[in-house]
Amino acid sequence: MLEKATDRSYGMCVGKSCLLLQFTDKRFQPVHDLTIGVEFGARMITIDGKQIKLQIWDTVNIIEMSFNLCISYYRGAAGALLVYDITQRHTFNHLTSWLEDARQHSNSNMVIMLIGNKCDLFARREVQKEEGEAFAREHGLIFMETSAKTAANVEEAFINTAREIYGKIQEGVFDPTNEVNGIKIGPQHANPRTGERPSSSAEKGGCC
Amino acid sequence: MIEEKILFERGNVYIHERPVTDSKGTALDEIGGTIFLVENERGKILRFIPLGLENTNYAVTDEWAMVNGHSVISYNKNGNSDSESLSFNNSPLLKYRFQFRLHDLRNIRRHHTLHGIAHMIFILKDGTTLPAFYFHLGGSKNLLQQIAQYLRLEKSIQDSRLYIIKDALPSEPKENVQAASTFDQLHLFDNGNDSMSRFKFGHDSRRTTMERFSKVTHFLRDAFLGQNDITSTGDNEDGGITPDFNSLLESFNGSCDLRESNNDGFEVIYKVDFKKLPDVTRCAPITIKEWQALFDKNGKIMDPDSVKVRIFRGGLENSLRKDGWKFLLNYYPWDSTEKSRIDITKQKQNEYFSMKLQWRSMTEQQKQRNNLFRDRESLIEKDVMRTDRTLEYFQGEGNIHLELLHDILMTYNMYNFDLGYVQGMNDLLSPVLIVMDNEVDAFWCFVGLMDRMGDNFHMDQSHIKRQLSNLHTLLQFIDAELANYLAENNSSNMYFFFRWMLICFKREFSFQDVLLLWEVIWTNYPCKNFDLLVCLAILISQKTVIMESQFGCNEILKHINDLSFKVQLEPLLRQAEGLYILLKKHEESTPGLPPVISSIMFPNMKKKKIRNFNDDDDDESDATSTISSTSSRTHSPSYGPVRVRHHTDSHTINENDSAVVTHTS
Question: Which of A125, B173, B219, B436 is deepest in the core (most CB within 10 A)?
C-alpha cells in the first residue's frame, strides 16, 4: 500500500497505522515510522444521536506479543480490529493464532472486526474476499475489506465496530459502569441505566 | 454551521516544540497561533489554531474532535474523502491544531520562565499531554481564571504550579476498579470494595513487601508534604517544557532518617540521607581545537578516560561525531595510532564487502530454500522504506541512502545471523549512517552499537523485560511511593518505557538531542546503566502529575508516550547524574545500598562485596541477571546493609526479586 510497494515486489505491512490515521485524521500518509509499542488515536462519532468518543490503540507488530502484555492490551478494550493485507497471503494465515490470543486475554464479549486492508490493490490480491468472509463467519466476526489509501470502508469499519459495541451496551451485555469493559460514561450526562453518552474504547491490532 | 460563542481569545501564543518545516520548506522552531475558549452545543471547547490555518474551515460543524496521540485535530465531516482533495491536509502545521472539550481536562500546569513568559500545559483525562503553550504577550492567567469559572481548580499541595481539576477526579478512583478485577482473578481476597483493606490483609508476599516499602516511605512522604512552596527551580530560561524536577528535588529534600523501630517487629537499620540532588555541571560540546589537542604526535589519544568523561559532560561538536563515534562504538580502539587506524579501516572495508557479497550473490533458488533469510530480507525491505523518512537525509523517492540502510542491515544479518534483523534496529542504524555518511564506517559502528544493545532484540525479550524490571526495582528504592503507585495500577512492568529503552530514546528526543544523549550513554560513564537513571529522572519528574491525576494503567502509558519530544535533555542529564551521585554515595557509605540495588547499579562492586562477605559464593555470573540469587545471599548475617528485621517468618521477595526487606532471624 505504500507508494513504493507498487513498484517493487514486496509489500508493506498490513496498514494498521494507516487505517487509524485515515479514520482519525482523514489522510493517507504512506510513509511513517513503524510502530513500536503503542500509539493512540481518538475520534468522536455519533451513533443514534449519542456522542461517543472512540479511543483507539494502535498496537504492536508481532514481535512484542511475547512481552506478555497482552493482558494489559486487551483489558479494557470493548472492541478490536483484526487486520490483514489482502495482497499478502501470510498475513491472512496468521489470523488464527492472533485470534486465539485475543480471545484468550480479552473479555469474551469483545467485538472483533476482521479487516482485509489494501483493497485498492486488487490487481495484487492474494486473498479472495470470500475467504475473508468465510473466516469471519466461522469465527463469529464482522468482516469488511478496506483501503486506508482511498478511505474505502474505513469509516464504516470503525463505526460499525462502535455500533456493535453500542448495541451490546443497549442489550446489557456490556455494563457501561464497569470500566473493565473499556467503556466510560461521559461526565455530563451520565446515566448508566440507558448507557447514555458512553465512550467506548476500541482496540485494534493485526499482524505484520 | 453550529453557533459558537467565543469566551476567550488570545493571540501570540506559541508552541516551542520540535523544529518543523513548513510547506515552503522553511524551518520553524516555534509555531505561533491563537488560543480560543469557545462554547457551542457540544460544550466548552479549548482550541489552538496555528497562524496560517485561520482560514481553513475549522469545522465548527464537525462532530469529530479528535485527540490523536500527539494532537487534536478537527476536520469537516462533509469533507471529501478523495485523497487528492485533501492535499491541504499535508501542511505540517495541521498537527499543531488542537482542541478538546473542557470537561476532558484533568489538570493544568502553569509555569513562568525567568523572562516572565508563562506557559501552560494541558493534560487530559485519558493521559494526553498537549505541548506547552507559551503566552508571549501574557494572558495565561486570564485564561486560567476563565477556566476556573467553569471548572473547580485546585492548586496541588505538592506542586504550586499544578492545578488539579477537582470535578475531573473520579468519585471512586478507577484504580480500585482495575485493582479489583485483577485481585478477583487471583482469588486472593474476600469480597469488598476497599482497596486499602485488601492491601493490608493481602496474603501475597509482594503485597507484604510493598506494604513495608510504604512504611519506609512514610518518612519520605511526610517530608514531601511538608514542602508546599518550593521555589521554582524547575523553571528555566531555555524555554520548552521543563519536566518538573522540583518534585524530584522535593522528594529528596531534607534529611530523611528512615530509622524505624516499632512493636510490630520491623526495624529499619539503614539510613537514607537523600538531601537534594547534587549540583552537576555540564559543559559545551568538545570543539575541533580541543579534540585535536587530545592526540599525541602519533595520533593516539593520550588519556582515553578523561576524553570519555569530557564527552559525557558535553558531547561532541557535530563535525567531530564522525571521528568520535568510531572510538565510542569500538570501531577504533582507544589506544590506536593514526597509522593503525588506516590499517583497520582497510581491513574492515575488505571484511565488509566480502560479507556483503555473501548475500548479494545468493541465487533465487538458494533463497527459496532459506525461509529465515527470505523473511528477514523482506522485513528489512519493508522497514527501510519507513525509517526516518521525514529527515532530509532519507527523503524522496529512490533515495540512495535508503539503499545504504538496506545493505548495511542485510550485511549485519550475515555478520550476526543468530540475531539477524529485528524491527527497531533500523531506528538505531539511521543516526549512525547519517553521522558516518559512509557505508563501511556506518556498518562497523552499527556493529559496535549492536554489541551494546543487541540483547534488547532477542525474540524472547527477556533482556528488555529485565531492564524494565530493574527500573522498577530502582524506583522502589529511590521513590517507593511512586513505585507502589505504579504497582497498584498494574504498571509495575514499566511497559510504558518499552520503546524508550528498546531503541535507546531514539524516538523520544529531537535528532540532535538523540546524538548527544547517545554519545553520553556510550561513554559508559559514570556507569553502564545510565539509561536507567535517565528513565528514572523522567518518571520521577512526572510523579505529581501521574499520582494527583490518579492516572490508571492506560493513562500512565499514554502520558509517558506523549512526553516524546517534550522533555529537555540537558536538565534531564543533570538530574540523572544527580541520582547517580547519590546512589554512589550510598554504595560507598556504610552499610551501603541494598544488595539488589547495588547489583543493578554497581554489578562489579557487588560481586566483590559478596565475595568478601559470603564464603560460599562462587557464582560469577552477571550480577544484574541474577538478582534473585543475590537477594537470597542477604540472609547471611555477616552482611549487614539495608535490612529490615522481622521476627516472624515472612516472605519478602517480590515478583521482581527486588526485595529490600529481608528476614534474618
Answer: B436
From B174, B8, B16, select the one nearest B106 (Cα to Cα).
B174
Does the complex come out with an ipTM higher than 0.95?
A: no
**Cα separation, B540 vs B608, whole angstroms:** 31
For chain B, positions 339-398, list CB contacts with chain A under 8 A: 378, 381-383, 385-389, 397
Q: Note whether B459 contacts A: Cβ–Cβ < 8 A.
A: yes
Contacting residues of A for B177, CB less than 8 Å apart: 178-180
Neighbours of B187 (CB within 10 A): 7
Residue in the structure block whose three cell numbers are 581545537: B289
Looking up cell 519530544 gives B565
Contact (Cβ atoms closer than 8 angstroms) between residue B607 and residue B600? no
Per-residue pLDDT tens over the stretch B84-94:
333 344 566 77
- Domain extent listing, chain A: 2-181
- State residue B316's pLDDT score: 97
Read off the pLDDT of residues B450-465 as tens digits, 9 standing for 90 and up.
999 999 998 778 898 8
> Which band of pLDDT confidence, cut at 50, 70 and 90, is reported for residue B115?
low
Using an 8 Å CB-CB cutoff, list chain A residues near B557.
38, 72
pLDDT tier for residue B248 given thresholds of 50, 70 and 90: very low
> CA–CA separation, B662 vs B660, rounded Å?
6
Question: Best-predicted range by mean pLDDT among A3-17, B241-255, B492-506?
Answer: B492-506
Closest CA to A53 of B271, B101, B561: B101
Measured distance CA(B215)–CA(B226) in Å, rounded: 17
Q: Which CATH class is domain A2-181?
A: alpha beta
Q: Which A residues, 69 through 108, put their C-beta within 8 Å of a C-beta on chain B? A: 69, 72, 75-76
B407 pLDDT tier (thresholds 50, 70, 90): very high
Name the E strands within B527-577.
Answer: none
Tell me if chain B has a CB within 8 Å of the CB of A67.
Answer: yes
